[in-house]
Amino acid sequence: MGSPSPTAIYPAAAVHTLDPSRPTAEAVAVRDGRFLAVGTVDDLLRIDGATVDGSLERSVLLPGFVEAHSHTMAGGMWLHTYCGRFDRRGPDGHVWPGCTDLEAVIQRLREAEADLSAAGAGPDEPLLAWGLDPIYYPGERLVARHLDLVSTTRPIFVMHASCHLATVNTALMELDGIGPDTDMEGLPKDGSGWPIGELQEPAAMFLADSAFRKFWGRMRAEESLWNFGGKARNTGTTTLTDLGNRSSTDPAEIERFRKAVDHDDFPARLSVFHMPTPGTPEALEEAAAAVVATRAESSDKLRFGHVKLVVDGSIQGFTARLRWPGYLKGGNGIWVVPPEQVADILRPYHRAGLLIHVHCNGDEAVDVYLEAVEDLLTEHPRFDHRHTVQHCQLTSPGQYRRMAGLGMCANVFANHTWFWGNQHASETVGPDRAARMNSARTALDLGVPLSMHSDAPVTPLGGLHVAWCAVNRLTPSGTVLGPEERISVVEALHAITMGAAHQLEMEDEVGSISPRKHADLAILEADPFAIDPVELRDIPVRGTMLGGRIFEAG
Q1: What integer is the mean pLDDT of 414-419?
Q2: Angle between helices 342-351 and 281-294 (to 10 degrees)
Q3: Where does residue 479 rank: exposed (0-12), middle (13-18), buried (19+ CB within 10 A)?
Q4: Residues 83-101: pLDDT tens digits?
Q5: In 3D, which of 218, 195, 106 has the Cα closest to residue 156?
Q6: Could you tell me the pTM of the whole model?
C-alpha cells in the first residue's frame, strides 16, 4: 500500500466555510486539489505527511465565488471601445473613466475613430464600441445623428450595456439598407418615418449585418477567454458560466473552450449553457440530443449540457415585458421568443433531463415561463429539476410562491439596484415598483433557492459587489431602494457560493469549504463578517485558489 499524497495545511486569519456543519476554522488542508479537512493547525497536523504552508496566514479564506450568470464575452468586449457610464477596469488593469454625459461618449468615440484612421483602417472598417446606456443621460436620447458627429463615412456600431440594444450611425444604415421601408419590430422611427439609429433586440441588430457579425466575431478570439479568466481571478471567482451559447454543440466551439479552460494556467471553471432556437419538433429533438451528447465532453474545469433561453429584453432598454401597467411612461417591451412557443421549445430539453435557465427580466415574462414549466411538469414529471428564472427583477410574491411550489430557483440581478436603481425609480417603473425589484428577501422568505449574479459584461464581474448590492440596496444618489428587501451578509455570501452552485448542479463539487470538494478559494484581505456591510464591495481580493493552486490577482 503506497503512502498518501502530500497534504498542505493553509492557516489563515479567518476561514469561513459556508458549510453549516462547521462554519469557521483556523486552517484548511488540501490534498490532490481537493479539500481534505478543516480545523485547527494542531488537528490537521495529525494527518500523515501534512506540512504547513504559511503563504495565506494573513488572508481571509472563503469558498471561491460562483457566478451563475455571466458570459465569456465579458472578456472579449475589451477588444472594442468602452463608452459606459461608470468607471470600468479592463483585464489589463487599465481603468477606463466613465462617460458622464453624451459629449463624453461622442469624444470617446472620436478618439477611437482617430485611432482607427491612424492605424490605416479603411473607411469601411466599422468602429465598434460597447457599454452605452442612453437612460443615464437625461433629455435627448443618443441616436444616429449624434454618432454622425463622429463620422459620416465610417460605419459605427455601439452595443448598449444591456446587450439588448445597439445604436448605429447613418453611414451604417445606408450601407446596410436600413431605411423608411424597413419594417421590423425593434426599429423605432422618427415622425418622418426614418429609423433613428436604435436597434432593439437581436432581430433588429441583425440588420447591421457586417458590423454586427464583426462585433460578435471578435468574442471568439482566444484572448477573450483568457481575459475572462483573468477577471475571475481578480474578483475571487472560481466558477463561471457562459450563459447562452448557440454554438456549444459545435465540435470546433467545444475544442476552443477546451484549449483555454482545461489549460493548467486558466484560473477558473466554466459551465457552458446551450442557447436553443425555435424549430420543428423533429429539429428540437435533434438539438436536445446534441446537448445531451456534449456532457461527455465535460471535465473537472469545463462543463457542458445545460440550456438557457431568452424570453424578453431589458428593463432599462424598455424592451422587457412587464405586467400591467407596463412602463411608467406607457408601452411595453418586446417578446424575444413568442410566448406561445416557449413550452414547445423547452419540451425536448426538459424531457431529456436537462437543466433549463430562462431570462425573464419582466414579470409578464416570468408568467410565461412559469406556465411553460407547469405544463411541462404535468406532461413529464421530474424531481429536483432546478429550472431557474434568470434576473427575476420584477418577480412578485405570488410568482415566488408558484416558483417554490414548482421546485424552481431564482437568480436575482442584485447589481441593478446600484447601476440602474435611480433610473428605475424615475424613468422605467416608478419608485414603488423600483423598491420591490430584485427582491432577494422575499425569495428567501418564501422558500425559493436563491443565487445572485452580475450578468458580466452587463455589469462588472465580482461576487463581493453583487453581495454588497443585496445587503445594502444603495443607489448612486445614496438612496436605500427598498430597505425591506435587504438580506444579511451571510445570506448574500451563501447566494454567491452555495446558492449558485446548487443552480448549476455543482453543489457537491464547489460552493463551500468542505471535505472532498475542489480546493477552490476566494482569498481576501479583510473579513466580510468583521467590517461595516457598506464596505463589503471594497474588500481587496488577493486572488484565488483553484484545485489547490494559488492564482495571485493581476
Answers
A1: 98
A2: 40
A3: middle
A4: 999 999 988 888 999 999 9
A5: 106
A6: 0.96
CA distances (Å), 318 to each of 315, 335, 482, 494, in order? 5, 12, 22, 32
CA-nearest of 176, 3, 69 to 411 is: 69
**Among the residues of 353-495, which ranges form H helices?**
363-379, 397-406, 416-419, 421-423, 430-435, 440-445, 463-472, 489-494
Q: Tell me which DSSP letter residue 296 carries.
A: G
Residues 6+ apart with CB under 8 A from 482: 417, 434, 435, 436, 437, 439, 473
From residue 510, alpha-carbon distances to 62, 63, 108, 214, 518 in Å are 11, 8, 41, 36, 6
Q: What is the pLDDT of residues 354-411, one digit of tens each?
A: 999 999 999 999 999 999 999 999 999 999 999 999 999 999 999 999 999 999 999 9
d(Cα 438, Cα 444) in Å, to the nearest integer?
A: 12
Long-range CB pairs of 75-78, under 8 A, 24+ apart, other chains included: 75/223, 75/224, 75/225, 75/226, 75/227, 75/228, 75/229, 75/230, 75/231, 76/218, 76/219, 76/220, 76/221, 76/223, 76/224, 76/227, 76/228, 77/130, 77/131, 77/219, 77/457, 78/227
Query: Residues near 69 by Cβ (< 8 Å), separated by ≥ 6?
Result: 241, 243, 357, 390, 391, 411, 413, 451, 453, 454, 455
Q: What percent of the chain stands above pLDDT 90?
A: 95
At 2 the pLDDT is: 58
Three-point CA angle 414, 520, 391, nearest 5°: 20
Per-residue burial over 111-124, b if 16 or more Cβ lie within 10 Å, else e, is: ebbeebeeeeeeee
Cα 411-413-417 angle, rounded to 5 deg: 150
Triad 134, 137, 138: Cα angle to 5°: 120
In 298-388, which residue ranges form alpha helices assigned H by DSSP? 342-351, 363-379
Angle formed at CA 96 by CA 545 and CA 245, multiple of 5 degrees:
60
**Set of cell numbers at residue 73:** 464575452
pLDDT band at 220 (very low <50, low <70, confident <90, very high): confident
Residue 145: pLDDT band with limits 50, 70, 90:
very high
State the pLDDT confidence band at 1, using cuts at 50, 70 and 90: very low
Tell me the C-alpha distance between 95 and 283, whole Å.
46
pLDDT digits (tens, 9 = 90+) for 266-325: 999 999 999 999 999 999 999 999 999 999 999 999 999 999 999 999 999 999 999 999
Q: How far is CA 301 from CA 5, 229, 465, 546, in A?
A: 21, 12, 25, 10
Please tell me the predicted confidence (pLDDT) of residue 94. Answer: 86
Residue pair 109/118 in contact (Cβ under 8 Å)? The answer is: no
